[in-house]
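Open question from group meeting: does this chain pack into something compact, or does most of it stay loose? Before anyone orders reagents, we agreed to write out a predicted structure and look at it together. Recording both the input and the output here so the notebook holds the full record.
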Amino acid sequence: MQFNDQKKGMLMAFTAVMFLMPDSLLIRLANVNSWNLIFYRGFIPFLIVFLGLLLIYKANFIKQTFSNGWHGIAYALTFTITNITFVISIENTNVANTLIMIALAPMLSAVLSLIFLKEIPDQKTWVAISITTLSVVYIFYDAIDTGDILGNALGLLTAFGLAVGAVIVRSTKNIDLVPSAMFGKLLVALVAFYFADNLNLKGSDLIVVPLMSVMCVAIPFVLVTIAPRYITAAEVNLFFLLETILGPIWVWLVIKEQPSPETIIGGIIIIITIAIHSTLSLKKSRHFIN
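Structure tokens returned:
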């Protein structure tokens, strides 16, 4: 089965979200403080991707790793900030607050792409972004009032970082920025190591933290780094709205926090909207190929 660029990008973004879904739950289940957790979420993915790139690039590892220029530096810094602010936001407000802020990423991506890349999202993408963003606001219409300022502000910064990162990748389609993301993870670990107090893992954390770092961090960050090379930054971040509804379902299944009626209704709207958008995008891509 042959995949065109649209199919490749959509499959990568969707797969990334599927692996990312339990992330908020696992952060809640971890019994370590923020900086200790951030260290492992940086170091373990860095180590995995480092070994993977070493096997892939072999003799060209050094050349490929340090050849991304200012785009690579910008992406690494953006990646570092986003990884840190996400965890601290989750731990300083409720999950709903953080997710509603991150849900603004598609709209921010579309605006940034329009300004810097002169890439005008088509009508169906603007419609999908508008519907899903309003759905998220509906789901968590009272979340802002229940969370604190720090957590909400860091959640918004995370959304902006995701948008900037996707636009950077989109602007350099022919450059492999996975090595830059790898250095971003290393920088995350180094920053966290400075603030961490005790890196010993005990009890359930021996399973939860490594599992989270591999499944919810390492795999998604590689896919998210590659996906914008095939579809627009706004379309990539549009898929991440699935986490807004599917993330709380994981919490409900494990911690028994039942989703509200607003979450169920808004979630159905989000899933239907993304499904329709994806179907129309695939039909359009097949039309151009034919």
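Observations to bring back to the group:
The two ends are 16 Å apart (CA to CA).
The mean pLDDT is 83.
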